[in-house]
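Hi V.,

You were right to ask for the full record rather than a summary. Here it is.
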Amino acid sequence: MDRSKVMPGSTLVEHLEQRCLYSVMHPGGPSPFLSHLTGAPTQSVSTVPASGDQNPYGVAFVPNGFARGGPLQPGDVLVSNFNNAANNQGTGTTIIRETPAGQTSVFFQGPAGLGLTTALGVLKRGFVIVGSAPTLNGDGAHEQPPGSLLILDRHGNIVTTLADQKLLDGPWDLTVQDQGSRALVFVANVLNGTVSRINLALSAKGDAVKVLSMTQIASGYAFRTDPSALVVGPTGLAYDHRRQLLYVASTADNAVFAIKHAATTGTQSGTGDVIYKDDVHLRGPLGLAFAPNGDLLTANGDAVTPATSNGTNSGIVEFSPKGLFVDEITIHPNPDAAFGIALSNSGSLVRFAAVNDNTNMLEVWNVSRRQL
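Predicted structure:
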């Protein structure tokens, strides 16, 4: 794994100056999270099941307190596949489970006609939510709108399927605010450049879901088809419940936005405020997650700015909520490998997971909390 810290379009001196500025703004505070990922991943496992599905997109941890009685256990990692064995985009139908010990199995095998996306989330009551954005007749080249959200029980059975021509038009990524008997699900729609909020009521037995409301809370993000990435548009989402801010990584805009009052706002248009716009370090942000130090992490998909040859392709970028670049690492020397990311921040270990599209692998780093 390449650990070069010299950024594309910048000198080593410029990079050190940015790191110094971060230290000045955080005196005595935590160091950049990515600086702790200094070696090979703790685990690196294949995401290809017996069916041959590939191109892993979404990744999510099973949280502490997850309902008992099924195969999933707290600490497991789930990965959704977007392509089938023939590598046709928008045709993957499987969710892979990886245990903390590195064992893998198929948690969900869906029917033909799906294309499981980065939209993957897990709720403690025993539900798994995954987005589907299939291609027309499985051709791997033409999106078939609008797609859908599948809600699965803890055994991997489909409880319900949500579809809406406007509010779920290409569900590309999601994040959840788990409230026990209820949950807020924020969904980024790649086919119309919007973000929706879904308010769910969850049964205590983990066998039924009721949609209380669905609301568009943002719009106007750039979206388009792409010859290699199929489609690009709003993708990664991360929710700060204390500040009621929803952060949106918009790939085609090459920027990260913030939506105020995301949990309560009514139907509205607009993208929210630009938080991070950095044409030096961003090359099409995709997955988005919070680091333990309060910074944000995003995966570079290399779909916007031309990829570089100095070891900074397929990057994970760390930046502050105020839009200050902090650090960057790469997960593969070639472009297009980075997509979904997730972080588990409980217990004595902080675990960071990233999919590697180029190798069809899930890579997980374990960092002792004492190091942070």
